[in-house]
Amino acid sequence: MTVDSFLLQATGLTCAIAGRRLWENVSLDLRPGEVLGLVSPSGTGKTLLLRQLGLLDSVQSGRIKFRNRTPAQWTFPVYRTKVIYLSQRPTIFPGTGLANLQHPFSLAVHHQRTFDLGQIQVWLAQLGRTLDFLERPGTELSGGEAQILALLRALQLDPHILLLDEPTASLDAATTLALERLLLQWLQQPDKACILTSHDLSQIQRLSQSQLNLQPFQP
């Protein structure tokens, strides 16, 4: 497979906090349609790797490329629309769930996109929810409901890569499976891929075609 065939490539990434190195020289290649599972013990910095890939934290060393171009070549705002990180505890803004979904379209980087309530309704139905779900204040949602809202908020922006940090940690078993089905359906579209962390190793095995074992730094 040629370099141009990869959606995302990372080479030689390193993470250190307060002078303590968590991991170093991490590299990965992500292909269209692929789910890459990150596996390692708790506290080894899986979240920090996802945040670096999403450019929410600075890249301390090494480089990242999306479609063989650096984030700077895309411009950072555009890169972040193509590679979206979802936290285990996502930020929900004041206002209703509907207002939270509409908020991204007020940003200049999304000015050419239009909010599609019909598509949101389809996704909600797949997750066992109705439009009433969007009438509730976002700040009153449970942890699992906030994860659902954040996923829909990301999907509607049509990213190429989702960086999912424990995306079903607060969901019940039935909703977890429904969300997995929705994610796999999304991956059937051209040029979509995902990197996933989960404490549920069976979920990693169900969803991912390959795994990256993040090794703690050994001085």
UniProtKB/TrEMBL annotation:
One example of the protein's molecular function in GO is: ATP hydrolysis activity
Q: Which UniProt keywords apply?
A: ATP-binding, Nucleotide-binding
Q: Which InterPro entries match?
A: AAA+_ATPase, ABC_transporter-like_ATP-bd, P-loop_NTPase
Protein name listed in UniProt: ATP-binding cassette domain-containing protein
**PROSITE patterns on file:** ABC_TRANSPORTER_2
SUPFAM superfamilies, sorted: P-loop containing nucleoside triphosphate hydrolases
Q: What is the organism field in this record?
A: Pseudocalidococcus azoricus BACA0444
Which parts of the sequence belong to the ABC transporter domain? 8-217
